[in-house]
Amino acid sequence: MARIVVLSDIHLSPTHGFFWENWCVAREFADGAKADAVIVNGDLAINGPDSDAEIAFAATALGNLRARVMALPGNHDVGDEPPGQDPDQIINADRLARWDGSFATDRWVLDAGDWRLVGVNAQLFGSGLAREQSQDQWLDEQLSAAGRPTALFLHKPVFLEGPIDDVLSPSCMVPSARARLLDRLDRSDVRLIVSGHLHQHRDRTFGGQRHLWVPAVAFAAAQARGGDGRCGVTVLDFSQNNVEVTIERPRELVSHDLAAIKGHGRYQFLRDMPPSPPPHAG
Ligand SMILES: [Fe+2]
Ligand SMILES: [Fe+2]
């Protein structure tokens, strides 16, 4: 038996501290959960693609968690794969280097009881960067060597409604990369795929693969995709052939309304807003 806590979409910033209190609630929950590890599944920052300070701030915050921490980048950390939701923040080598400077790696393997957990950088899929190819090769090696039930963690969902969707949307992986990844997964023993990004909890199984969308820590879903958009934290208890999923919503966790924070259209991005640093951050 192994317990993993998943915190996703924490969206921290030293200058725009709207979600700092939610982070403190999530951190306290994780510290008390007797977890073997905490996975932080992307969107650690708000303006990570253009700010050294934000990525460093998120790294410091994660360093204060009691358990071992495994972090993965999201579009708010290293930028989006093209075409992306913001043409000014497309993933590139400099943005990856900034992440590497604070987190050392954007992909990892972790054993949890009888399961193997594999974390990848979702933003590389469809990016055309050299690191996309090396990650593909690495993933092939990890999946063929696993020899046990495997769970894949990545920031973005692989698809929205179904594996054969050809929808091009910044809400999920681009179709060309998706087809290649699903082909890989079908040849492996990947039973669980855990993603964030859409800020909602949804749990659906397609074929032998369970696609779990975990809720955000920072703010509620802006758009319903068939899930529960309230903020939350996720507990995964891995046993021999099974994984038990529990979504916890500590009372103090506030499901912030992003549109209201941005003044209902007054600001396009949170980073454009006047500074509002977190209280007592550290
Ligand atoms: Fe997010
Ligand atoms: Fe995201």
Helix and strand arrangement:
Elements: E1 2-7, H1 20-32, E2 37-41, H2 52-63, E3 68-72, H3 75-78, H4 93-103, E4 108-112, E5 115-119, H5 130-146, E6 150-153, H6 175-186, E7 190-195, E8 202-206, E9 209-213, E10 233-238, E11 243-248, H7 258-261
Parallel strand pairs: 1-2, 2-3, 5-6, 6-7, 7-9
Antiparallel strand pairs: 1-10, 4-5, 8-9, 10-11
Helix pairs in contact: 2-4
Residues 9, 11, 43, 76, 197, 199, 216 line the site of one fe (ii) ion.
Organism: Bradyrhizobium erythrophlei
InterPro entries: Calcineurin-like_PHP, Metallo-depent_PP-like, STPP_CPPED1
Protein name: 3',5'-cyclic AMP phosphodiesterase CpdA
Report the β-strand fraction as a percent range.
Answer: 15-25%
Please report the first level of CATH classification, the CATH class. Answer: Alpha Beta
Report the count of strand segments: 11
Task: Output the CATH homologous superfamily.
Answer: Metallo-dependent phosphatases
In what order do the strands lie side by side in the largest sheet? 4-5-6-7-9-8
Helix content: 25-40%
Architecture, CATH level 2?
4-Layer Sandwich
Sum up the overall morphology in one term.
Answer: globular
Radius of gyration: 17 Å
CATH overall fold name: Purple Acid Phosphatase, chain A, domain 2
Q: What count of helical segments does DSSP give? A: 7
- Summed over residues and divided by their number, the pLDDT gives a mean of 96
Helix-strand pattern? EHEHEHHEEHEHEEEEEH
Oligomer: single chain
What small molecules does the structure contain?
fe (ii) ion
Low-confidence stretches: none
Head-to-tail CA distance between termini: 33 Å
Task: Give a quick account of the main beta sheet: strands, pairing sense, barrel closure.
Answer: 6 strands, mixed
